[in-house]
Amino acid sequence: MAEDAVTRATYNIDPEDLERMLLAKEQLPPGSEAFQVVREGELSNESMADLPMAGHSAQELRKFGRVTGYQREWLTTTDNDDLSEGDDLALATVVHFMESPEAVSNWMKVVFLGEFKDKVGQELGEGHRLLSVEEISPAAQFHHEAVGVRAVQEGPKGPISSCVIDFRIGRLLGVAYVVTVGDRDRLGVVETLAKTLERHMMSVVLGAS
Predict the structure, then answer these.
(1) Disulfide-capable partner of 194 in 53, 160, 161, 165 (CB 3.0 to 4.6 Å)?
(2) How would you label 98-122 residue by residue, b for 16+ Cβ within 10 Å and e otherwise?
(3) Alpha-carbon torsion 124, 129, 133, 138, what sign?
């Protein structure tokens, strides 16, 4: 895989720099004023392996070339009884630190797209079942490469949809997602979130080069 100046700059990044790449509240899309942070901090291979849909041990994650990561997840403060179809429940930005650009590309194709699709029909826990996963092509241009999915799951109170975009900057993997009440397409919102994350990550990467 050919290296450009940005890719080379990602080799100057330390894991501690990842936290600075995550978005702050003022960088979130319009309509996120009622959101608050519910989960943030380092996402080590051990902690990622404990997530409900991880599907891999910490050792397996290391074999994929994943070193560590950071996450910041936001949840709406609107009471559940006041939520309507089309309202956003949660959004997040995540940055993964990988060993190489090839490891990022492989992760996007094998773990993100391939394994996500393989989970259709499976129980996700707490009364949730994954109904569908549709691969989507982001309309926005990303520096290196990007892929996305729109997933729908059935929950105790009806369907919930998720739009997720994964993109690569050198050996860094950026992730943005939006979770919404009902079977809704929020690609435009998640693209805005992902592009803002990419620009912010680039500013940190180039500032460290």
Answers:
(1) 165
(2) beebebbbebbeebbbeebeebeee
(3) negative
Q: Are 172 and 97 in contact (CB under 8 A)?
A: yes
Average pLDDT over residues 38-42: 92
**Residue 158, token pair as written in the block:** 């009806």
Closest by CA position to 136, among listed 119, 148, 151, 153: 148
- Of 196, 178, 201, 186, give the one whose Cα is nearest residue 26: 196
Tell me the pLDDT band of 83, cut-offs 50, 70 and 90: confident
Supply 36's token pair: 């608050």
Residues forming a β-bridge with 119: none
Cβ-contact 132, 153 below 8 angstroms: no
Alpha-carbon distance of 64 to 29, in angstroms, equals 32
Query: 17 in helix, strand or coil?
Result: helix
Q: What's the CA gap between 178 and 30, in Å, rounded?
A: 13
